[in-house]
Amino acid sequence: MLDRRSVVPLYYQIQQFLLDQIHSGAFGPGEAILSEKEISARMGVSRMTVRQALKSLCSQGVLYSQRGKGTFVSATKLEKNFRNVLSFSEEMSKLGSRPSSKVICFEVAQPDIKGTEALKMKAADQVFILRRLRLADGIPMAIECSHIPVHFCPDLLESFDPATSLYETLAKQYGIHIAVTEEEAEAAVAKAEESRLLKIGKGSPVFHFVRTSYLRDGKPVEYVNSTYRGDRYRIVNRLTTETGKAVSR
Amino acid sequence: MLDRRSVVPLYYQIQQFLLDQIHSGAFGPGEAILSEKEISARMGVSRMTVRQALKSLCSQGVLYSQRGKGTFVSATKLEKNFRNVLSFSEEMSKLGSRPSSKVICFEVAQPDIKGTEALKMKAADQVFILRRLRLADGIPMAIECSHIPVHFCPDLLESFDPATSLYETLAKQYGIHIAVTEEEAEAAVAKAEESRLLKIGKGSPVFHFVRTSYLRDGKPVEYVNSTYRGDRYRIVNRLTTETGKAVSR
DNA sequence: AAGTGGTCTAGACCACTCG
DNA sequence: GAGTGGTCTAGACCACTTG
């Protein structure tokens, strides 16, 4: 069952094993799984290792624990796809649409004040500005305008093929992996240029997004302004109660 | 420093201590904190206990760890308030506004099809429907329409004082604590009734929200339809990469 | 080679729930 | 009182980073 010679940690193997069991229906929603002691005995691992696996599944919302009672399978639909850090390409692929894009402009310039602030840059620092029309199955979905400080990827103008994914290029060519993005969304109505590019009526509802993306150490790498069609896009979130607190109930 | 007689767990005391240190500036953004061994030695606790505290702070985004190097303070602004499960009252208070509301209707009825589905009810089951105009500092902000199955709180019509918080009543009177809410937001333009209630022009941008809230065991307890003013409300999110995976780097 | 975090063990005591 | 999860210990070995 468990492979102790594998490079995959035991707790992760246990996690996957339990996930398989749950998906196969061995434990239905609301039902208790085996106790920590049982699992550790049957699998021949220490209870702490089992707990590490269970804790992770609890934080993912697959299980929940009740002191003195047991650990139970959540009833929430697991298949629902909530948003993580996703590029437009990834998000559309996940939804089953074919993403593409048209470059409107791609240049080196100075960002506006908000961009400079968000990227924590000095006033003179420059950024790549990539403005694209984003399409899903050939239908215009959004206008996206990315700002990336030049020092992260000095030769981006040459190395980036606009037909490919920007995030992929950043990851593969420069080792830039985004860990967190902060996002603000506003409801607005389409202005003249927006309605022309998105092929919707002037005054149609749209989302305005401002996103700032950070590396794991908290350094900002990208600042994005975008406009999404309100009739073909929706924001799906999952909100939870705070974590990191001592359990009280 | 640590109180071993306290009911507060040691790992939580350590967590708070580190948070205090970080906020006081003892460790700046990007700087390494003490090593796990150092902390455990200085505080007289085992390393596993220190790790439990650090893991929690890492998952909150306050710290990040690098194998072989150390544990570092993230550079992200800590003061920014991202959304957890929050009621309108809580959210507005957090933003510094005084929340209030006017009840438009409060009755027992059958929900529409979407509500029945979201709440996983049988077609004949009934819900409380509470429709309210929500105000911040006396200014209309949103129209909210809550649906709650009657069996959760049979005498809500008597026990709920519309001048108070619905969530507080649910928690205190019935022990109902929401753990997760799923939310979908669309951009739209105000219809006649909405613009009248919210005192905005017809055709002004608004958000349409559909929210379903769940208990810890995954049972749905509340289904809410709401319309927020687009000119006075914005959605702020923090998106992260997936969790629960074995570290690869 | 020395130091770091990642994983794991084999115990322990506690608070809690339930019959 | 028996069983559960929550907390904690004092070690251990490993992979990784850095000088």
General form of chain A = elongated
The assigned CATH architecture of the largest domain in chain A is 3-Layer(aba) Sandwich
Instruction: Work out the oligomeric state of the chains in this entry.
Output: homodimer
Kindly provide the name of the CATH class of the largest domain in chain A. Answer: Alpha Beta
H/I helix tally of chain A: 8
Number of β-strand runs of chain A: 9
Classified in CATH, the superfamily of the largest domain in chain A is Chorismate lyase-like
- DSSP strand content of chain A: 25-35%
- In the sheet with the most strands of chain A, the strands line up as 3-4-5-8-7-6
Tell me the distance between the termini of chain A. Answer: 36 Å
Radius of gyration of CA atoms of chain A, rounded to a whole number:
23 Å
The computed structural class of chain A is alpha+beta
Number of domains of chain A: 2
Features:
2 domains; two-stranded antiparallel sheet; Chorismate lyase; disordered C terminus; homodimer; DNA-binding; Arc Repressor Mutant, subunit A; 249 residues
Write the layout of secondary structure elements.
The structure is a homodimer of 249-residue chains.
Chain A (H helix, E strand, L loop, with lengths): L9 H14 L12 H8 L3 H13 L3 E4 L3 E4 L14 H7 L4 E11 L3 H6 L8 E10 L2 E11 L6 H4 L6 H9 L5 E10 L2 H7 L6 E10 L5 E10 L5 E6 L9
The first copy, chain A, binds a DNA duplex (19 and 19 nucleotides) through helix 3.
